[in-house]
Automatic annotation (TrEMBL):
Sequence intervals crossing the membrane: none
Protein name: Branched-chain amino acid ABC transporter substrate-binding protein
The keyword Transmembrane appears for this protein: no
Record carries keyword Signal: yes
Coiled-coil blocks: none
Pfam assignment, any one: Peripla_BP_6
UniProt keywords, alphabetically: Signal
Family: Belongs to the leucine-binding protein family.
Record domain Leucine-binding protein: where: 28-368
Length: 376
């Protein structure tokens, strides 16, 4: 058969076009929001590391959805742990038409930001623990860990029933996270027959608690519950030691970091307690393997919620696969009905977006390390 030059050129054009079509990729934008600067940056960077690790793996695997290869991209924003900055970040992510949002970290940021995501129909997976986050009723919102009602219940019961504390005082930093957790702790103390003799508050920017602690010293507390982060909790325990206050501090997941121990100067951190939503990493189904590759990739230890953020990226990918679509409106129903075995555990959500399986781990600083003392 004789081919003309035009036939050859046309054939080459068609083949080239088919090749380009076959190589076409669907870009999936995963919006991310957490504090990446300031005193809470170590939490946010840890969260981002978890997402990055998942995205790198997903892109190597090369998912195909709706007949096209999918490439995941992270659209990362620094919300500064500030509600005002958080809503600005949320609007930026909405304007960039992200396919999902992984974050935020702080309840005070997550609660107002979630309204914007809901209005845009974008699924959001957060570790914010204040119950109000999901009480808003947004069907696009999901929580990756247990909420403050659960954490507060476990901590309050432990303080009264296990530590046998008769004199308990409470201090919070007035954030949605700190105040919310402190409220739930106080409620649980009373439910278990205990008494909170004093309730004080500070801010999430304060590092000098001398005045408050001097006043509380007269109460001779056995337990001081602090609702807030490690950047304030650590100087608080140092100042307690200087003032001769022997009470044990109890707090939530934001105290459970190596930085708390380091900032407290080691010795002052000994004996204090924290509670974290989820099982210890070495007891999570994929925890040890995740921890190993995290250390290999980032040359550091997991700070707190990197495994949950890693799971969040995979949860979105799994829902998209089940729905055979990357469009939020189409894969959202699949996410609501998900049953997925993640690194941190089996993920299923109730009708409100709460996780159905949410253990709580209580830790105590022993010999310079956070050590598991109970899993509830």
């Amino acid at each position: 058969m004789k081919h003309t030059a035009s036939t050859v050129i046309t054939s080459a054009f068609v083949l080239g076009t088919l090749s380009l079509v076959s190589q076409a990729e669907t870009i999936v934008k995963l919006g991310f929001g957490s504090p990446l600067t300031g005193p809470q940056a170590h939490y946010g960077k840890d969260n981002l590391n978890g997402v990055q690790l998942a995205v790198e793996e997903l892109n190597v695997k090369g998912l195909t959805i709706a007949g096209q290869k999918v490439k995941f991209q992270i659209v990362s924003e620094d919300d500064q742990a500030d509600p005002r900055a958080g809503t600005q970040v949320a609007q930026k992510l909405v304007d960039q038409k992200v396919n999902a949002v992984l974050g935020h970290f702080n309840s005070g940021v997550t609660i107002p930001a979630s309204k914007l995501y809901s209005e845009a129909g974008i699924p959001e997976l957060a570790v914010a623990t204040n119950p109000q986050y999901l009480k808003q009723g947004f069907k696009s919102a999901f929580r990756l860990v247990g909420n403050d009602a659960l954490l507060g219940k476990v901590l309050g019961e432990y303080a009264v029933k296990t530590l046998k504390a008769k004199n308990i005082v409470v201090v919070d930093d007035r954030t949605a996270y700190g105040q919310g957790l402190a409220d739930e702790f106080e409620k649980a103390v009373k439910t278990n027959g205990g008494t909170v003799s004093r309730r004080e508050f500070t801010t999430d920017k304060s590092t000098d608690f001398t005045s408050i602690l001097t006043s509380l010293k007269a109460n001779k507390p056995e337990v001081l519950f602090y609702g807030g982060a490690d950047a304030q909790g650590a100087p608080m325990v140092k100042q307690m030691q200087s003032l001769g206050i022997s009470a044990k501090i109890m707090g939530g997941d934001m105290l459970n970091t190596d930085q708390f121990i380091e900032l407290a100067g080691g010795k002052a951190a000994e004996g204090h307690f924290s509670a974290v939503s989820g099982a210890p990493i070495d007891r999570q189904p994929g925890g040890p393997a995740f921890e190993k590759k995290y250390k290999q990739r980032y040359k550091q230890d997991v700070v707190l919620f990197a495994p949950q953020f890693y799971d969040a990226a995979y949860l979105v990918a799994e829902a998209m696969k089940k729905a055979n679509s990357v469009e939020p409106a189409k894969y959202l129903p699949a996410l609501q009905k998900i049953n997925y075995a993640g690194v941190t555990g089996q993920f299923q959500f109730d009708n409100n977006g709460e996780p159905k399986n949410a253990p709580v781990t209580i830790y105590q600083v022993k010999n310079g390390k956070w050590t598991v003392v109970a899993v509830k």
